[in-house]
Task: structure prediction
Amino acid sequence: METNQVELSKFGSQIDRSLVMVGDSFAYQNRFLTPEWDVLFVPNSYQGIWINRAQLKLCSYTEGDIVITSAKDADSFQREIGVYQDWMANEF
Result:
C-alpha cells in the first residue's frame, strides 16, 4: 500500500518538492512567483531562493528542482531562512 507521507524539516515545516522545466531561475521567478515573493539569493541562472513573508514560505530553485518550504509559524520561518543564510555564507 502506498502512503503519502508529508516531508518535514527539522523545524517542523512542510517540504514540497517538484520539477519544472522552464529554462532558468529568472524565467521561473517571472513565470511562477507573484510579487509577494522577495529575492533572498539568486547568484546565477541555475539557482534561486525566494521568500514570501505573508505566507511564511521559502522557495528554492536549482536547475529545475523546486523546493517549497511552508513554515508553521514565524519562529520556524526565521529558522528556515537561517538555514539558507548559513548555506549561502559557506558556499558563496
